[in-house]
Automatic annotation (TrEMBL), chain A:
Keyword match Nucleotide-binding: yes
One GO molecular-function entry: ATP binding
UniProt-recorded name of the protein: ATP-binding cassette domain-containing protein
InterPro entries: AAA+_ATPase, ABC_transporter-like_ATP-bd, ABC_transporter-like_CS, P-loop_NTPase
Keywords: ATP-binding, Nucleotide-binding
Record-annotated ABC transporter domain positions: 5-227
Keyword ATP-binding: yes
From TrEMBL, chain B:
Domain HTH gntR-type as annotated: residue spans: 7-75
Keywords: DNA-binding, Transcription, Transcription regulation
Record keyword Transcription regulation present: yes
Protein name, entry field: GntR family transcriptional regulator
PROSITE patterns, alphabetized: HTH_GNTR (PS50949)
Amino acid sequence: MTELLNIKNVTYKLNLASILTTVSCTVPTGSIVGLLGANGAGKTTLMRIISGIAQGYHGSVAINGETRAADRKRLVSFSHQLDGANNRAHLGQIVHDYQTLYPDFDQSAYQQLADFLELDSKKRLGQLSKGNRKKFVIALTLARQVPLYLLDEPFDGIDGMSRKKIIASILKWKPDDATILISDHHVDDIANLLDAVIVLKDQKVVATAQADTIRQQGQSIEDYYENIYTGGEQHD
Amino acid sequence: MQFNDKVPIYYQIKQYVYREIIVGHLTAGHQLPTIRQLAVTLTVNVNTIQRALSELIKENVIIPQRGKGNFVTTDQTILTALKQQVITSEFDQLYDNLAALNIPPATMVQQLQIYIDQRKDDQHD
């Protein structure tokens, strides 16, 4: 498999505080990879850097060989949490804005996703429950047709049924060659979806492994991840 | 489907397909669902399904037909061998577990017969 994403020695500081330190990792084309780490480990920051939003880092990030932030933005669909969006806006309006903003936004894919996730376009953003808001974010993110999707904690704080729906929609609408990087601090949700994991801890990539390799050693991905976190504490 | 999270999933999918064939949910010559459909039904990644299928194809249990999809083999020799293989692996486990308890083979046979008779009686009740 070829590498879609190649991150080399990325270091990022914000107001003199280190967020990421010499992070290097690769993600093969067509795979689903879990970016695991506790809250504050730097998962969201790494995704912001990959997507081209966060500037001022050291090191290099390449998607399909493209290293300029402006070029990368076209190749990535990042699950923004719609924090900046107007809560009074109707979903239909936000979808329309996305279409204008992103030439790769596929309206019919969005409609299928919205139908499957039972989203009502006449509702206002502020009226959505936490679960429905997460579903809306997933529908918007997956409707763009790009090589790389970054899903940042798509299941955080939602009920089991919504989680199942979102997982099914990822599996159904992921374009064949597309690659997905999905972050989570609770591995159990996504363990069965993953080809591989990248573990972030204390601003660094501390481990990368294939899901099959972990299980061949009689470990679950959750055990593997927890061992890395608790194993490190013994050295403190 | 519930997976054991300590065993590679592609391996569990292979076992699942074997069982579907043996119990007759999938019959000789039957077409398998598409890879995407299997991924959604079993809630796993497409790559995992592909790995399981490519091994099943290598074992000649599944026969791919260009442009049409994947089919269960119609070769009865392979299907009979498959059934035997699954039965043997069940016995492997049972034998190892009992041998670990220092039970001699003759006693195993005796105990198995008693057990089967008991189960028969239970079902009649």
